[in-house]
Amino acid sequence: MIRVLLVDDQPLIRSGFRALLDLEDDIEVVAEAGDGREALTLAHERLPDVALIDIQMPVMDGIEATRRIAADPALTGVHVVMLTNYGMDEYVFEALRAGAAGFLVKDIVPEDFLHAVRVAARGDALLAPSLTRKLIHRYVTQPLPTATGAALAELTGREREAVALAAQGLSNDQIADRMVISPMTAKTHINRAMTKLHARDRAQLVVFAYESGLVAPRNA
């Protein structure tokens, strides 16, 4: 059973998402919160698998709540998915850097919404190629400080290759096809890279890939 925490300051939005989730046999909404501070308290009390958190809220916004969840050893099993009214607003990249597994636009169709919750619960990133392209555009128009090459030196050549492909939005199966390896081996490369880079999830691997220069915007 996938345990979900809904966090949004608009009760109508929460009730809409809850109505969809309550129809699924494998998903349970364990709590609702109206701001980030309340979300942190409930995350500790209910230990959800997925926290759907609105970016802009009173008291404590979604990005700060995400940052605190990601930094808390007691909440390592909580996968945060940010909710936004806009496809790629100014906060999304900051949310990924804070530790979010991805983001959803609130007008998403129900089938895609339910699929996204299940993907997040597995620990996979919600990083479709369209999102990757927008992240690249963000780097082109507003470059961020790059990381040193020290972290890259920790990775093997095959791990670098796998991370670079993940940064293009490819799944483990697609990475396996590109690298001519099994999906399990692809997953192993990704997991080892995450461990070495202290990345919480694949979303942070994507951030690292661009910040470190492993993947250049012009190549994607």
From TrEMBL:
Keywords: DNA-binding, Phosphoprotein, Transcription, Transcription regulation. Transmembrane segments: none annotated. Residues 148-213 form the HTH luxR-type domain. The modification 4-aspartylphosphate is found at D54. Residues 3-121 form the Response regulatory domain. CDD domains: LuxR_C_like (cd06170), REC_NarL-like (cd17535). GO terms for biological process: phosphorelay signal transduction system; regulation of DNA-templated transcription. Signal peptide: none annotated. The keyword NADP does not apply. Pfam families: GerE, Response_reg. This is DNA-binding response regulator. It comes from Streptomyces hawaiiensis.
